[in-house]
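Recall that a protein's primary structure is simply its ordered list of amino acids. Everything else, from secondary elements to tertiary packing, is in principle encoded there. The following example makes that idea concrete.
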Amino acid sequence: MSKIVPVGVSARHIHLSQEHVETLFGQGYQLTEMKALSQPGQFAANETVEVVGSKGSFPKVRILGPARPATQLEISQTDSFALGVKAPVRESGKTSGTPGILLKGPAGEVQIEEGVIVAARHIHFHTSDAAKWEIQDQQLLKVRFGGDRGVVFENVIARVSDSFALDMHIDTDEANAVLAKTGDTAEIID
């Protein structure tokens, strides 16, 4: 049985705590939805923030909503060089000991002390998909991309939950390396 998964290319983005939403956009501010994302309840917000590193900045980084318990900036390795930030590869939410960065919004700015990561490639599995393919949460997988620049990605983290929809997330550096785009598919081979 082949294990084909849809691919989503994850460009640089930021998740904000409600406290930081209000610092950057004003007291009581709520993010507004621009478009729904592949994961249920998640959305790309209309709002953006500027992120400022020691070497450079990005003026309009898309915020993904809804607000989260902690602020987290997800960038590619190439972005890391451009900003002058040594962002480690980490699973989302595992930001302890990561670098911080300056965020600027229309109503204020905030210096986060940690939270800048290069997101580890992963696949979101609904529990029913994981059960069907006998995949466990946190299992490391090998995933093949075909085409002219085909490659096998190793150490792809399985993330299993009743609240997830099947989707593999890679960053723009990984996508560019294999000429992949959102909506393509890949195959779990191990």
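The radius of gyration is 17 Å. The chain has a mean pLDDT of 97.
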